[in-house]
Amino acid sequence: MVKVFATIGVSLIMGFALASWMQRMPDGGSAVSGSVNGGDYFDQAAVTEQRIRALETAIAEERNARQLLEDELLVLFAEIDRLGAQDNRAERRDTVEARNDRLPPDGFRPRRAERSGEARMSALVEAGFSADRADWILRREAELEVEAMQARFDARRSDSPIDRLDPSMNPNSMLRAELGDADYERYLQANGRPTAVAVTRVLESSPGQAAGLQTGDQIVRYGGSRVFDIADLSAQTLQGSPGESVVVDIIRDDVPMQIVMPRGPIGMQSGRFPRRQ
Predict the structure, then answer these.
(1) Last residue of a domain, one of 161, 190, 219
(2) pTM, to two decimals
């Protein structure tokens, strides 16, 4: 329920933000509208060079407004996910409390584990990391997240495009580089995160379909390189020569196998499969 209200709030904020921005445009319209007479962006009496500069200014303002909206949406959707997770935790807590109420007065009541720093530390130690190494990983997570935020901020300040595949803007990629693939895989498992790219849909007439890729497959390597998520996979498709044959390692029904396809767009969609019981 909280998530539904939060989603409605996002839609309202987007509408208000867009309306507010459009009110700053001449006649409430777009900066590229040619119907404005004597507006700030299209003074018919101005020389061509001045009109071009005015148009560039209008386009820059629109781009900045859209970027601000995008950033705000990312924050809001993250908050929606957090609120949804809180709802799920509350439901689980109610279930646990109801079950515990059925225990005898002197019965053992298990302590509910929270995904706090202490719980995450324990999960990493159980995955095989030493206590010192687990503590370093948790601290390094926060440091890399701050570094990625700074990199994205600097890019926006310099009016440079934000490349989501740039490792300096992806804390997961930076942590993977420091841990190595084997430890990074254990780190993902300890945090309950997927360690392969789940194929949820294969598009018709796509290179993936022609190569035999199927819904339900999990891609673990592309061209010999380990891939843990869709960002890894996208980065690998851009390597080498477009169209060259690459071997793709997949797992289908718990059976490892390989398929061959041309390097480039695969023609698939990815998502998280439900966890097995």
Answers:
(1) 190
(2) 0.56
